[in-house]
Amino acid sequence: MSQGEQSLEKADVPLQDVMGWGKNHAAAYRCLVDKGPLEAGEVVVRTDIPRGRIYDVLEDLVEEGAATFRERNPRRYYAQNPEGLIQERKEDFDDKASELIETLGNAYQLNLPDESGDSAWILGGRSGTVRKLRELLEEAQDSVRALEPDPRWCETSDHRVFEKLHREDVELKPVIWSARQDTLEEIASFNYPVWEHKELNKMFYVIDEKHVVFQMGGDTGVVFSDATIAKVFAREFEGIFKYAEKFDRNNA
Known about the structure:
By secondary structure, the protein is α+β, with helices and mostly antiparallel strands. The chain folds into two domains: 3-110, Arc Repressor Mutant, subunit A (Orthogonal Bundle), CATH 1.10.10.10; 120-251, Endonuclease, Chain A (2-Layer Sandwich), CATH 3.30.870. The chain is built from eleven helices and ten strands. It has helices at residues 3-8, 12-19, 23-35, 40-46, 54-64, 82-87, 94-110, 125-138, 156-167, 181-188, 227-241; strands spanning 67-70, 76-79, 120-123, 143-148, 171-177, 195-197, 203-207, 211-215, 221-225, 245-246. α10 links the parallel β5 and β6. The longest helix has 17 residues, at 94-110. The model has no long low-confidence stretch (mean pLDDT 86).
């Protein structure tokens, strides 16, 4: 085991405390952060996780939104950004979480994979999809097109991000299902535009004409980072957008 791997092992115990994981889940996530993307067998070689448990452990991490995978044979697993993951638990475990963000965050940035040959990956669980969406929205520079039938995941901090993008002249076109009147009125209290649509039954975001976050059936999400695929979704968005109406809380 390399010196780098040994130094990151110190994160396993606080990971268990902060995330509520057992030792196998903590070791698997730390290994993916440091050395991923990895196949299940490669995680076994680099940790003490029994071979008979590794798939259950990795699928648990995917379901919780801590990891993603690319559908190939065999699957390769990727860690989600530890900063966003651990930040959600930070209020209860402030000191340990800050240390973890610094320890694992540096390793994650150093180990970011070359994704030039891969354009899509699977996000397990609603929380994993929302976490990746937030990360991409924070980095948006040119445009955000959104079809959102259920925006109740949005917190005040998310609305502030949209306000910031609007101030920076990023083209914002969020379209919300008109049945969500309470949410529409809440959004209208912030300083960014929003549209409503009477028949909205799908959720996807097109960001900077390159990234697409798409909610499939159930809680499974998919992220595409491909300009050609983004153009397909953008065309579908514009076809729906022309039937949307800009929301005016005074006429609601």
